[in-house]
Design a protein that fits this description.
Organism (chain A): Jiella flava
CATH architecture of the largest domain in chain B: 3-Layer(aba) Sandwich
Strand content of chain B: 15-25%
InterPro entries (chain A): Spore_V_R, SpoVR-like_C, SpoVR_N, Ycgb-like
Oligomer: heterodimer
Distance between the termini of chain A: 67 Å
Number of strands of chain A: 9
Helix content of chain A: 40-55%
Order of helices and strands of chain B: EHHEEEEHHEHHHEEHEEHHEHEHEH
Shape of chain B: flat
Radius of gyration of chain A: 28 Å
Largest sheet of chain B: 6 strands, mixed
Protein name (chain A): SpoVR family protein
Strand content of chain A: 5-15%
Distance between the termini of chain B: 74 Å
Structural class of chain B: alpha/beta
CATH class of the largest domain in chain B: Alpha Beta
Pfam families (chain A): SpoVR (PF04293), SpoVR_C (PF24755)
Organism (chain B): Jiella flava
Largest interface: A-B, 97 and 67 residues
Number of helices of chain B: 13
Structural class of chain A: alpha/beta
Largest sheet of chain A: 4 strands, mixed
Number of domains of chain B: 3
CATH superfamily of the largest domain in chain B: von Willebrand factor, type A domain
């Protein structure tokens, strides 16, 4: 049987499979066929793959721990598990066909229930599309270390378990609850400034002294001293500087500066922070990541079909699943629940391919760099590597896609009686729609901008936070109070959050610790 | 590229998280379980199932933008009729894009999930304890009975089943055509005969080859192979502590209406459920009575109609008889639950009480009397206190501290569970009065 199969494979134009069932040999052959296209034609560059076949039960388990194969234990994962389980058992929600993890080797979970066609699709989508994106996109390169994440999670799991044994489940849970509440604000968004080492510090001082010597002029001495310059509270400024304020990474600030935390509590906060940081690039690149994977699987499946390696029937099965993935309900459709990242990403990437090969005059005006350049996959690979959702949309959303999706922009000003249609898919609107959509996918705008502004460690130790209000949108009061409660518990003293809009404080929230951690 | 089959891996990776969640939401879940059990058919109580708890209790807060206010700017797909500058009336309730806030499903009012049967029962019967465990203490927990339960492929040599092993060996030998010693002997004799006669050398040679072949076969195929071995399997059952007999006594005379029967049934079901959690083996005996008592099956017990007067002692006599015949008190834990509307033939009360005191209570672990009332019964907070039934008064006089007996009144389906809990609540003194 094995013999027959290998001879069949070498003959092009013979389908890899005709049945629904699959086995491990078939998976390897399918993988080989996909690899030829992905490598030869699309030029994808991937981490080695580790494909794991799992049951639906195990898929539910994976869901609960955000897909990671191992994770520390916490009740909130149990909550997500029971919800997904209920939805699944009642038939209200299907399970994903795969889960892929940004690690090296790249772990791809595939479900045993999938048909042979679906396994082919899943391999093309996850093992090649997502994998290429993880390896090459700058956000992932900058912020995650794919080769060590599994080891770190293993460490986190054993560390949390050890803390539970040593300090009790309840105490660990309190810290984790509080840290989870601040997780969205436990991220370094920019690399930040590192303190100089001694050598650079000296070099800088030498340079400055040399500069001062070169430009020395005795005349400066004769200028009268300004008596009433801007008065500055040097103490406060120095205090803030010492603590590295303002600081937008709240978990980092607490880990380093909260006065009453024990070392193991700081380490727990650090674990939550590291994991939040690991997932941050995924939040920034939903459209691109899914678009890259969807575009890749579409190309690969089409090519397999063209070369006769999958049958017409399989191709139709694939198209059925593909079209439901990239379906974008319109805004007035009851199924509408926001912009589908698969649909937008796929549409934009197909359009980039079109612009690169058969551009119109409009495309030439909008995209002079890439229009008609001929190397569509080269342009796409460059985009996949160097953009995130926000910049990708701002750069590549073409008038053709805006027209096709019939995108329009609304402005909802609470002071106005009506909602205004600001721009639509026409000559005057393309740029405004594009900019607005790009902002919509900017994680930096989705999360409110909250920073630690000041704390008087010598005084009452009250922690002052600022929320820089954008567009007059305030925080949700109920949740903010709860999060501040957690924050105060970690900090150990009172906290105060000011919502500041253009220099004016428009709202304040307070929190006091109820249970100081021991 | 590697392919790894994870399917055989042990499942239940989320079990620990699930338990943590249950622990966290315990109070909420417990309340939901009790409410759910009221709405559910009594037979389905132990199936487990979906419960809904308020989402607030297990909410995970985060900093995020509020619903109304400010200037919001967003892009939607599928424009049909708008041109720029159009004004749309704001939808009621703030509008907004709707995609914020509940992306995680947190916006729901209730959090709905499915409990397993064990989780459900554990919460349902939490803090309940069987009263009067004297018998268990006297006999100890470790009374066990060993009885044969088939055969197994491994075990100590002492439990080797020779008959079974030989039977398997024989069938294997036949199947593999191992030469029988007699056949071999016959061949050898034949050879000796031929050699003695100095017969044809061809035949002698053929015979020799044949004999050698058979001998080799006999060597290669063992007489008893390890695969033949069979050992006796012994199962150990705790005895008799872990078994209980539950007597359900019910008045089915005309004065008992459907509502009352339903109440009784719910109570019996709860008791059964409770006993099955505590004992490995629970027998139920249904005794229904009018002026005469009969042991019946469950269907007849609850659904068939009967008319006649009410003589409770008849049921007690029947119970005593059955217990004596089939459930001797030194081997069984006997529980009895009696449901009645309290209308007994007045001349029978004294006799019933005497029977209870002398015959029934000494052998039972616990005797529960449930007086079921009409659905339209007004609570006795009126001007005139309601007259107690004669049976109630008679039983009440019987009650002593230390007597394994309890009695309660129930009028509404809602009260069944609280009353049940009250009866079996973990407490120090074995019985109490009311």
């Amino acid at each position: 049987m094995q013999q027959v199969a290998t001879t069949l494979e070498s003959k092009t134009g013979t389908p890899l499979f005709t049945e629904r069932d699959w086995d491990f040999n078939l998976l390897s052959r399918v993988y080989g066929a996909i690899e030829q296209i992905a490598d030869g034609e699309l030029g994808l560059d991937i981490y080695p793959n580790q494909i794991e076949v799992i049951t639906s039960e195990q898929m539910l388990d994976a869901y609960a721990s955000t897909g990671m194969p191992l994770f520390y234990k916490h009740w909130s994962f149990g909550k997500h598990f029971v919800r997904n389980e209920t939805l699944y058992r009642k038939g209200w929600q299907g399970l994903a066909y795969e889960i892929v993890i940004n690690s090296s080797p790249c772990i791809v979970y595939i479900m045993e229930e999938n048909s042979a066609t679906m396994q082919t699709l899943v391999l093309a989508h996850a093992a090649f599309g997502h994998n290429h994106f993880f390896k090459n996109n700058y956000c992932f390169q900058q912020w995650t270390d794919a080769s060590s994440i599994l080891d770190y999670l293993a460490f986190a799991k054993t560390y949390v378990a050890a803390c539970e044994d040593r300090y009790g489940q309840d105490n660990v849970e309190k810290v984790l609850d509080a840290a989870h509440a601040l997780m969205s604000h436990g991220i370094h968004r920019y690399p930040g400034k590192h303190p100089l080492d001694l050598k650079s510090e000296q070099r800088r001082q030498d340079e400055r002294r040399a500069f001062a010597e070169q430009h020395f002029s005795d005349l400066w001495r004769t200028l009268p001293k300004t008596a009433d310059g801007p008065k500055r509270d040097l103490d406060a400024e120095r205090r803030r500087q010492l603590l590295g304020l303002p600081e937008e990474n709240l978990l980092y600030f607490l880990e380093k500066n909260a006065p009453r935390l024990a070392p193991w509590q700081r380490e727990l906060i650090r674990i939550v922070r590291q994991i939040a940081q690991y997932f941050y690039p995924q939040r920034q690149t939903k459209v691109m990541n899914e678009g890259c994977a969807t575009f890749s699987h579409y190309r690969i499946m089409t090519r397999l079909h063209e070369s006769g390696q999958i049958t017409d029937g399989s191709y139709l099965e694939f198209l059925h699943s593909h079209t439901s993935v990239v379906f974008q309900p319109e805004y007035d459709d009851p199924r509408y629940s926001g912009i589908n990242p698969y649909a937008l990403g796929f549409a934009m990437m197909e359009d980039i391919e079109r612009i690169a090969t058969t551009p119109t005059a409009e495309d030439r005006a909008f995209f002079p760099d890439i229009a008609g350049c001929g190397d569509a996959y080269g342009v796409l690979r460059d985009a996949w590597a160097n953009y995130r959702d926000e910049s990708f949309i701002l750069q590549f959303l073409s008038p053709a896609v805006i027209r096709k999706q019939r995108l329009f922009r609304l402005v909802d000003d609470a002071d106005d009686d009506d909602i205004v249609v600001a721009s639509i898919h026409d000559e005057n609107g393309y740029r405004a729609v594009r900019q607005s959509l790009s902002r919509q996918f900017d994680v930096g705008r989705q999360d409110p901008d909250i920073q630690v502004a000041d704390v008087d460690l010598a005084g009452d130790r009250k922690l002052i936070l600022h929320h820089n209000v954008v567009d007059g949108i305030k925080l949700d009061g109920k949740d903010t109070a709860k999060v501040l409660q957690h924050l105060a518990n970690l900090w150990g003293y009172d906290v105060k959050l000011l919502e500041i809009d253009g220099g004016d404080t428009i709202a304040t929230h307070d929190g006091s610790p109820t249970q100081a951690f021991r | 590229m590697h392919i790894i089959d994870r399917r055989p891996d042990p499942g239940g990776k989320s079990l620990a998280n699930r338990q943590r969640f249950m622990r966290r939401a315990r109070a909420l879940v417990k309340k939901a379980v009790q409410e759910a059990s009221g709405a559910r058919k009594i037979r389905e109580v132990d199936d487990g199932g979906a419960v809904t708890i308020p989402a607030d209790g297990v909410h995970e807060p985060s900093f995020h933008s509020g619903q109304g206010g400010g200037v919001r700017d967003y892009v939607l797909p599928g424009n049909k009729k708008f041109v720029s500058g159009d004004r749309i009336e704001r939808p009621k309730q703030g509008g907004g894009s709707g995609s914020e806030g509940s992306a995680d499903g947190e916006g729901e009012d209730g959090f709905r999930f499915v409990l397993s049967r064990d989780e459900f029962l554990e919460l349902f019967l939490e803090d309940l304890e069987l009263p009067n465990l004297a018998k268990r203490q006297v006999l100890g927990d470790a009374v066990e009975k060993r009885h044969p339960a088939g055969f197994q492929t491994s075990g100590p040599p002492s439990s080797l089943s020779v008959g079974r092993t030989m039977r398997r060996s024989l069938s294997r030998r036949i199947a593999l055509r191992r030469p029988n010693p007699r056949e071999l002997e016959a061949l050898r004799n034949q050879l000796a005969e031929l050699e003695g006669e100095m017969g044809e050398t061809d035949r002698i040679l053929a015979l020799k080859v044949e004999i050698e072949r058979q001998e080799r076969r006999a060597r290669v195929i063992p007489f008893i192979d390890p695969v033949d071995l069979r050992y006796r399997r012994i199962e150990v059952t705790p005895e008799p502590i872990a078994r209980a007999a539950m007597f359900c006594l019910m008045d089915v005379s005309a004065s008992m209406d459907e509502h009352m029967k339903d109440l009784a049934k719910r109570f019996f079901s709860l008791l059964y459920l409770f006993l099955t959690r505590r004992y490995r083996q629970v027998e139920i005996i249904f005794i229904r009575h009018t002026h005469e008592a009969k042991e019946v099956d469950e269907e007849t017990f609850f659904y068939s109609r009967e008319s006649g007067g009410t003589v409770i002692s008849s049921a007690l006599t029947e119970m005593a008889r059955i217990a004596k015949e089939r459930f001797p008190a030194d081997q069984w834990n006997i529980y009895a639950a009696q449901a009645s509307d309290g209308d007994n033939l007045s001349s029978d009360n004294a006799r019933s009480v005497a029977m209870l005191r002398e015959l029934i209570l000494p052998m039972t672990q616990h005797y529960a009397y449930l007086q079921v009332g009409r659905a339209d019964f007004e609570r006795d907070d009126g001007v005139f206190a309601r007259q107690e039934t004669t049976l109630w008064r008679a039983y009440q006089e019987l009650l002593r501290p230390n007597l394994p007996m309890a009695m309660r009144k129930v009028n509404d389906r809602r009260d069944i569970y609280p009353v049940f809990r009250e009866l079996f609540e973990r407490r120090d003194e074995p019985a109490e009065m009311r």
